[in-house]
Amino acid sequence: MRVWILLAIAAVIGTSLGASAGTSALAQQPPEIRVTIFHDTHLHGNLEGPGGITLAHYLGLIRQLRAALPQPMNSLFVGVGDDVGPSLISTVFRGQHTAEALSAGGLDVNTFGNHEFDFGPNNLREVISRADYQYVTANVRDSQTGDAFAADMGVRKWLIKSVGGVQLGITGLAPADTANIAPVGPNVTILDPVGAMREVVPQMRAAGAQVVVLLSHLCWDDTERVAALVDGIDVAVGDHCSRVLDQPRVINGTIISRRGDELRLVGQLDLSISNGRVTRHTYTQHTVRADGPSDETIAGLVSRYKDELDRALGEEVGETTSPLDATRDVVRGEESAAGNLIADTLRAWGGSDVAIQNGGGIRGDRVFGPGMLLKRDVQEMLPFANYAVVLRVPGADLWAALENGVSRVEQGDGRFPQVSGLAFTWNPDAPAGSRVQEVLVGEETLDLDATYTVATNDFMAAGGDGYETLQSSEVIVPASAGPLLSSLVIDYIQQRGAVTAEVEGRIRTTA
Predict the structure, then answer these.
(1) What domains, with CATH codes, occur in the chain?
(2) Under 8 Å between Cβ of 339 and 359
(3) Residue 307: partners with Cβ closer than 8 Å, 6 or more residues away
(4) ω into residue 329 within 30 of 0, thus cis?
(5) Distance CA 186, CA 428 (A)
(6) In this prediction, what percent of the chain has a pLDDT beyond 90?
(7) Distance (Å, rounded) from C-alpha 425 to C-alpha 303?
(8) Nearest Cα residue to 137 out of 119, 113, 118
(9) I need a labelling partner for 370 at 20 to 30 A (CA). Which of 171, 357, 466, 476 fits?
């Protein structure tokens, strides 16, 4: 009996101790914190989308979704760049409009895409000065200081933001080829994304970042490459190539989410964080609807900018008696009537032997006319702040420039040349670099040992879109003395009253 009593007492004590220990362990477990990231912007400078959708609907949806969270303060709204250009409205307001709208709409953090530089680095600094949100960039650097571009205005390589008590380290990446596709100016350097992240991720961790978030304006494959090669990135959102993932991918521990571009979708990424680590995630994709929630403040802002744009661009310029095809596939792959008009305008202005215009600089993605053209049409066709220049180019370099122009047609690259004063034949089946078969300047075969005057735009003259052979050319008329290309075309049409531009065999293929 005495033995049984002792055993019973021991069992009770053991059970009590076990329960006490279990309760103590449970009490010591850190609580799970939910942090929500709404992403991204990638507006291309637009305040309006298809079907009556405006930025007021986009930002109104985000505001509604944030308010509906159990803890709205545990959320973050981030952009991934390409908010300044290259839309029609951007040709007038140059990013001022999106900076004002995103500031009013509650954007927390943004980064730079290539289109932030559409109107040059000084204009981007003006946009930054108007923005109430923070800019971060790991790889867009001031080549003179090595710091982030516009660091003197508050732009940082990275920042740490406390959300729900979790220390989020946030940085951003622009495309590695930004300097080749946008006028970044002489004092901006774009670092390799992998190298830049290997530099800043340890810095963020050392400064106390528990969760690292990358605002990526890289194409999806480059983002995935960075995630695979750089340890310590917890989340990457955004996509330069405008792809959409129904659900995030996880690569090397990095949750990768992308929702496309412009005003169609909102991505909502919910992170469960325990002890400073992401333990699980859920993703919801929201479609923006014209009959959905709308932010009244943003709606008034959109209306104001639309009225100002209508007044600025509603003026008639002149008539085109022929259709001007500026569709993307045409201007980037074959002779275009719109391209001929622009190139002819350049050559007439410069009094040059030839003119070359990159197809990627021609936008609108539609056929203009025949009929009356408004300033709006020309600005839509030529939205970038490119200035006309005249160069003196050796014949061999001119041939090389044309080779560059047809070297990436399969990828739909913007370097495809629209020309005036010359005609050339190329073989799309030949390897890149050996595709041009024949070049005529006027009626004569191109002389590789001669020099020719070439009218073009300042972006190409500076080596943009791979036109490095033009960089070393003698400058006859610099960009500082040349007119804005869109203004030049407007003047050309106005002086003539009516223009006719047709495809006439300037560019032929052997296929």
Answers:
(1) 33-307 (3.60.21.10), 316-509 (3.90.780.10)
(2) yes
(3) none
(4) no
(5) 34
(6) 85
(7) 49
(8) 113
(9) 357
